[in-house]
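Hello,

Our lab assistant flagged a job as stuck in the queue for most of the afternoon. It eventually completed. Since we weren't sure the result was trustworthy after the delay, we are filing this so someone can double-check. Below is the sequence as submitted and the structure that was eventually returned. Let us know if re-running is recommended.
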Amino acid sequence: MKLRIVYDNEAKEGLKSDWGFSCLIETGNRKLLFDTGASGAILSQNMGQLGLEKEELEFIVLSHEHWDHIGGLDAVLHPNVMVYIPRSFTRGTKNKIKEKAAEVFEVTGPADIISGVHTTGELGTELKEQSLVLDTTEGVVVLTGCAHPGLGTIIETAKVFGDVYGVIGGFHGFDKLRQLDVLKKISPCHCTARKSEIMAMYPDKAVWCGVGEVLEF
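-- returned structure --
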């Protein structure tokens, strides 16, 4: 399984950084896009630089309804793509997606998307968010958007799918950093408030996150 960061606050040379997040998941010959960043133009530019076309995407999964995670959606929707969203999304957003996508799935609880890729289901109270759980030979890897429900809560929920090997994505205000001791791979992205501290604490297992970065499991 391969993960490629296509939208983030940081970027490798030749790619565009911006406030937001998007990650491409490749498993076998299937491609899933998790979140779409804030700008369709920037998302399209980065995908083009990385040799990706929107028609390759079989699924789009949206973590939560904040602009920096769904703002680029129009640039990647196409008539054959299936979209997974939390049921709590507003009716207006749902209707816009349904106009352009093949099918829309409204997520509530933990569920399988395809073999090896699962959703935690909606977590949180006022702002509901889903994360992805990915099967790897080392254990499951958690992929978050912003982790508004709390990174600890997301990791605990992910354990229904197996032992958690690593976590990638936005950690938001997560500050119980010692909870990361048991993980083998950490890649704090986007909105992680204590990113530099995490990177310094775990030099042997923390991986820089930015557009163009590839993580393979």
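-- support follow-up --
The delay was a queue issue, not a problem with the job. The result is valid. DSSP finds five helices and 13 strands in the chain. Helices lie at 40-49, 67-70, 91-100, 151-158, 195-201.
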